[in-house]
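Q: Convert this sequence to structure tokens.
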Amino acid sequence: MKGLELSEHYFEEVGIPMIRDKFSDYKDRIAAGLVGDGSECFGFDDDISRDHDWGPSFCLWLTLQDYEVIGKDLQAAVNELPGEFAGIKARNESAWGSGRTGVFVIEQFYKRFIGIDHFPSTLLEWRTIPEVNLAVATNGKIFIDPLGRFTTFRNKLKEYYPDDIRLKKIASRCMTIAQSGQYNYVRCIRRKEYVAAQCAETQFITDTIAMVFLLNKQYRPFYKWMHRALKNLPVLGNTVYERIFALVTAHREKDLSEEEMYRWKSLLIEEIAQFIIEELRMEGLSTVKSDFLLDHGPVIQNNIQDVQIKGLDVWVE
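A:
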């Protein structure tokens, strides 16, 4: 059983009766679910995940007013719930994994991830929030939300970046993908600077995945899960997923000489770049005919409406 499914059953069979019996006056005011850090919140947990910060548990979200009245008592009641459930042992919290579940004030829960206790109201606020944190703040599942306040905050974040922020990020990724992959990777190989070539390849992969998430208007998760999450994205998701996998495994999947392998990798990098350029044109983000992504960045940035954002260096995200 996946961790998210396990936790939902745990809440239904253990959490709901506790709330009904001990906090009946607030049963229509408490939101519950599992959102935040952890592979289970993304649905990526497996047997390896179970060694730490995994097991039957859930989050309860309250308004500040309700938390001031019942917060401590509700947390105490949660602490008294049976840890083992459905034959699965209690959550084994690591030194850095504590506090992921339990009772929270709605706004403070979001502040933990996005740095503010309100929905971002300016482009500057949006720019200061790490994308992986937005992915964490909007993952998982809400089991119940009678008031709808937690869900409203969540859904507004899931509407994605304002257009100008998205365009700025896309423009910057055009520059860095071109620099690391289309340009520097080949040059590093020619110089036999293989460590630098590996760094360029890794940067190309990271920025390419980031670009595909931007094209899909989905937040990119933590590096450990971003390639896996890429697979199911409708726009270029599986296409780029497979090419990146081929890029990383070329040394062991193909019977090639060293020179042939690097040439093969260069071709894969170029193929991925062309897929991205084609998508940019299809979306009307760029009309440039160049096959070099670097030439598309400034054109895309020119579509930004906000004067300050538009005036930033195109390389700056």
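The chain has two domains: 3-158, 163-310.
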